[in-house]
Amino acid sequence: MCEGASGTELDAALVAPRPALGDAIDPIGLEPVDEVIVTTLVDNVYDALLQGDERTTRVSFGVGLAKAPQFEGGETAVGLRAEHGFSALVTVRRDVTTTSLLFDAGLSPDAMMVNADRLGIDLLGVQGVVLSHGHFDHVGGLAGLATRRGGRSLPMVVHPMAWTRRRLAVPGADPLEMPTLSRRALEAEGFAVVERRQPSLLVDDCVLITGEVDRTTEFERGMPAAHEAWTGSGWRHDPDVVDDQALVVHVRGRGLVVLTGCGHAGAVNIVRHAQRLTGVSAVAALIGGLHLNGPAFEPVIGPTVEALTAIAPSLVVPGHCTGWRAQHALAAALPNAWTASSSGSSYRVDAA
Fold it and tell me: How does pLDDT run across 36-70, given as a tens digit for each residue?
């Protein structure tokens, strides 16, 4: 989830950045690919009037029909669903081999599947699932995917802390406990769960899952005091959301494509971590939630935009929990890179 109250100086001290300067001790040999396409299956926004370009494909109202007796002919055109959640399909091509992975699954049990069906995407063809973290607005659609698959096995990469019980305890309101992901239930539905804290290479070493992200900036301090985790004996502040991880692909001659779910580790921390792990400095694209929405995170917008401007990604598609203030700031600072996110949009990066 992506909201909460402001924390204290003590809370900030608890998440002071760890030094992680220089090259990675154990660099990752991420093989370059010829093309990557990221299709946003679920996002907070659906805009049927957005226009595409040479790197972005959009969809309008012509993605399906629904019965509606109020219209002549008894049908009406429908668009795609938008909700406070995120899901993306990542399709990677290397030579003649193409592989697809599902990155997160949105909030509700059916939105991801409804959107995929309307887009003509058969999610039965995905080779695996990657979860950015365990928050329920990124995993709810797994129920719909499991029903469609009928129990057939599918690999799933998660951080071992994705099963953590969490709640929002905003002062003056009753605590709201979030739905907690169940490993037992997922395995019963056919998901072959692989837990990893460290970086993982998938798809013949062409896709990197970062594992835990080094927190090195001075301004990305994590979640405010209202975000709590169950320790087994009580609730305590959970600033880190340590299970937060990103997906990274290296497009030959272009640089890294970095896909985030919420970016709880901090957008700049995540990009720099990917650069350190791979030894690749150029960033071709940054796509996904950047977690800059709400009073606890708006003070971070300025230094985040400044750092991302210095990194100079060729394409920036902030979605989900980024927030309108950060969207405006990023669009102003990176006018040639910034692109609006919307459910159903596809973003393509080709090799140079």
Answer: 999 999 999 999 999 999 999 999 988 889 999 99
For range 292-316, the mean pLDDT: 97
Pick from 189, 185, 183, 140: nearest CA to 164? 183
Task: Summarize pLDDT for 326-342 with one digit per residue, the tens.
Answer: 999 999 999 999 999 99
Residue 305 pLDDT greater than 90, yes or no:
yes
Question: What crossing angle do the helices spanning 267-278 and 301-311 adopt, rounded to 10°?
Answer: 30
Residue 336, exposed/middle/buried by CB under 10 A (0-12, 13-18, 19+)? exposed
Instruction: Find the DSSP H helices in 103-190.
Output: 111-119, 142-149, 183-188
User: What domains are there in the chain, each with its CATH number?
Assistant: 9-350 (3.60.15.10)
Which residues are CB-contacts of 147 (< 8 A; sequence separation ≥ 6)? none
C-beta separation of 213 from 265 below 8 A: yes
Length of the chain, please?
A: 352
